[in-house]
């Protein structure tokens, strides 16, 4: 699905699952954290997972879900340090560099709009060579509201001054895309397979691609 690029000036891009492979985050929260929690409390992995799952589910969509400080305190574990220990698992999704390079060549304004905590952002951008493409890097923690909330978009447009009708937003989260749609972002694009280790999803509500370079002319 190729956007009408002549009608787009600004491109807002999610990070995890859009630019970067979500398999890192799924491994970290779905395996590494439960393993460490099990070791810390002398219980089985299964018991740790059963204990943590409702806690995680209860915070999804809230700013706390994305906050390293929150989970460091809640779990009593050095979450940022643990992320750095497995940073070799961080990787770009195929097509990311080609997409960003093309946007830059076309003179589009490129803004990262992520729910990731600033420390997570720092850890990940140290491992992938993409920061230089962006005109701005925005974390929802800067505004105190996740992308799922309209307050995030109000703060973002006030800060960045983009024309919502001439803006493309790309994300893998259905909830976040719904929020952007409600705000009136003119062009939306969904990623079908945010994690390389999980199957692609059937996306019908918005235009969708697997890899970002598929959205380029003749991509």
UniProtKB/TrEMBL annotation:
CDD domains: HAD_like. One of its GO terms (biological process) is DNA repair. One of its GO terms (molecular function) is phosphoglycolate phosphatase activity. Transmembrane segments: none annotated. Keywords: Hydrolase. InterPro entries: HAD-like_hydrolase_sf, HAD-like_sf, HAD-SF_hydro_IA, HAD_sf. GO terms for cellular component: cytosol. It holds the Pfam family Hydrolase. This is Putative hydrolase of the HAD superfamily. It comes from Umboniibacter marinipuniceus.
